[in-house]
């Protein structure tokens, strides 16, 4: 017994010593290797990252992820790879790396086998050109033999663990958005091996997924238990065990996913078999989920999905998508419903080859349900294509809307009325070819009533009697009859009848009467964004034929009546802010829609229009119609900057091109986008126009918008106290680029004010800094605007004449340097009054024709080339008295800030012009100093450049169209 007791004490003693030793080592080791760890972290970062990495501090501990020794980086910030160096790729409260203790103690090397990331935000981005911000890891190939000693820092992962991650992935090339919040991930496997199995456990609190702006998942909870075989050589992921749950819906995945050089290769199959309708409903948008909790829902469902093929945007390759949904023997009944929904059955399949919506195939083989006797709905619909759609549809139903509302337990809406429909359609729908399926059908609604929780008053007495008929599959036999559509809202009745026949040459008869409070009707349907209580008042009678207007037979039209709008908000997809129509009084007279009184604002800008639009009915009928008109426009103030496409504003319904451009260029303003379907002339009278800090006052002239271009003709305005006359043309190309032509004339231009107040003058005429007085300008230019609507100087071409009417030039550095070199101080104050200077601009160079002026008794003549970036290659002939017939040459090179003078020389040093790509709007090469050439070769080069510039200048006159 004593021996056992002694043995026990010895064992406990050694266990105690071991525990104390381990604890001692756990405290002492982090103190022994802090320098090694910090140095190795920096070594790994500098060696393997092509992006900026910042962090607050690093520290070692055994207790963070016991029993691993971990190095932890606090408050990490990692920027993206080029061209996203200023954008955040990853932030994290903590990033920890588990270190191999054996290698650290015995070899003093850091080998990382575990990674932990906590409270992180990852912003992964691929722009529309396919450039990604995540290419931050740089592998460093070496011709040296492999390091067999094992020294240095290395990564050999067996475990990755993420806690509370917000991952946002935007791929604009593929039009994909993934937004995962509350992501927790554990991955185990031999990450350093070429081929390994990754055991994954994944939970996401909310997941959003959209493709081409269509959301297929919103705020979904995800749980995944996955085993994926990963081949790092081929970047291929094979799905071996993949059990996924979206809310309550289980899904099983099989297939593979490969990352290619220019895209992806996919073969993914997903299935959710023998699940319930309730499970399927759990993946509906979040606003519908509460509805299912209080309803009795029975029935079975099956769901299948596949995505197969290569996705390579540069080669226009996209995978094929197929999906199907089967619902059987459904039963739905809310708590207070007297009649349940029975026999709910649906069989739907979707086929989308190459993700091309023009080839979209939908096959609704069956959709049916019953709501008691004489209350049922049946539909069979099959379509193929989108632009040219083959349709075969049979839809029948008779429903009591109040019974439907009670059965479904819709608490936020009250419905009443009897709806009945019977539509059969078979054939091809194509707007361009004017084809319409052979169709016969009707839809009626009697004694309708609609009230929502969002607004206290209902829309009531809703009656609709609509019939559609087509006998031969063309637009010619298509007829639509609406007799009537009427309802009451807050004591105001609205009444519309319409008889439309022969859509090839539309014969129409429409009557519309009533007053509608648009702001309040929007509240009924909980629509956001209309924050004014707008009114529409109509008393219209339209009777005519489409061809009467297009062929000028206006006397056969009988369009009359009024349409009044008050406090209406309107948006367009290309403008960042909303238009507010304070008052619009429109009168219809046959072919014209007169603007009798129209006042509107846009941000700080205001407009008052009087005039007419022509053929407005054709515009609304024709899918590609153009709206014609003629107006007088008066305005107190227009701020051009707030029309630029990427500026901040309240409009959330912008085009995808504008949204993507803004995402890629968050600090840019973009350019002004001009509507392509307008052909409108304006007699403009604007008191003040502001454009990028430039003030134009009392603008008067003719403006027109045609085919996406804006023209100004014989337009006058005051700028810095001078009256300027311009002819101009402007056209946007993308939300980030535009081009322009301008021909301008100004008689009394104050040089010093222009230099101080106009950035373009400071850029194009740096010498104006040392010039005081008045000049006259007759100049023509064409070029491009960049993403901030600033001229791209290498794109400018043109030229013209500057007359130094009454100027004083003092201490112009280039002339002063010449004067100092030849001992003539008079060059500091030359007499240049009345001198004409003709120049031609091309590829960032300014070519100066010969001009002569007076310097005391001398007659200098200057010609040559300078650049917008200050390079000089000028030739000066200093004419001596009497009359300047005899003279000597001087060459000026260097820069405007540091001119170089060579007396008695004719050989300068040319300037190689810039290269500019007009298609991509990119400067390929800036101008630079040329290699030294003979005088003869320089003269030939200069003559060739001047000829190109002169040709471009002459062409501008034809480009500035006379509209």
UniProtKB/TrEMBL annotation:
Residues covered by region (Disordered): 925-963
Tagged with keyword Aminoacyl-tRNA synthetase: no
An example Gene Ontology biological process: regulation of protein targeting to membrane
Gene Ontology annotations for the cellular component aspect, listed alphabetically: plasma membrane
Membrane-spanning ranges: 12-33
Keywords in alphabetical order: Membrane, Transmembrane, Transmembrane helix
InterPro entries: AsmA-related
Compositional bias annotation for Basic and acidic residues: 939-963
PANTHER family tied to this protein: DUF748 DOMAIN-CONTAINING PROTEIN
Official protein name in the record: AsmA protein
Protein species of origin: Halpernia frigidisoli
